[in-house]
């Protein structure tokens, strides 16, 4: 496997169900081949299968890497569409300041 392998093909090889190691390997592959948070999440959604478990891991890692960067981070329109996003962000900021 190399970084030129289409993401959907890699997920097909490793397995689309939640079971590991396929789900974990698919997540890692998305992380290392994506330049932005949105790209990584979109990639795993398009690959199909049980993409929720992959998206959780991908989102955590790419969110930690890119944060609120306007170009690469979590898109503000996605945050605005998330229930209780204000409360979640307030708690995250409070935890960071401890």
Walk me through what this model shows.
By secondary structure, the chain is an all-alpha fold. The protein has one domain. 65% of the residues lie in helices and 0% in strands. It contains 6 helices and no strands. It has helices spanning 7-14, 22-33, 37-47, 51-66, 76-80, 85-96. Helix 1 crosses helix 3 (37-47).
The helix-strand sequence is: HHHHHH
| Number of strand segments | 0
Helical/strand content category: mainly alpha
Largest sheet: number of strands, sense, barrel closure: none
Shape: elongated
Low-confidence stretches: none
Helix fraction bin: 55-70%
Overall radius of gyration: 14 Å
The tally of structural domains comes to 1
State the helix count.
6
Termini, distance in Å? 42 Å
Topology record:
Blueprint: H1 7-14, H2 22-33, H3 37-47, H4 51-66, H5 76-80, H6 85-96
Helix pairs in contact: 1-2, 1-3, 2-3, 2-4, 3-4
Keywords:
mainly alpha, 0% strand, single chain, 6 helices, 98 residues
Can you give me a brief rundown of this structure?
The chain is an all-alpha fold and 98 residues long. 65% of the residues lie in helices and 0% in strands.
């Amino acid at each position: 496997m190399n970084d030129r392998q289409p993401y959907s093909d890699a997920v097909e090889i490793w397995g689309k169900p939640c079971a590991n190691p396929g789900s974990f390997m698919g997540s890692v592959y998305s992380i290392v081949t994506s330049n932005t948070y949105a790209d990584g999440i979109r990639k795993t959604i398009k690959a199909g299968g049980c993409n929720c478990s992959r998206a959780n891991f991908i989102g955590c890692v790419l969110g930690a890497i890119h944060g609120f960067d306007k170009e690469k981070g979590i898109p503000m329109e996605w945050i605005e569409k998330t229930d209780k996003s204000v409360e979640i962000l307030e708690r995250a900021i409070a935890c960071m300041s401890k």
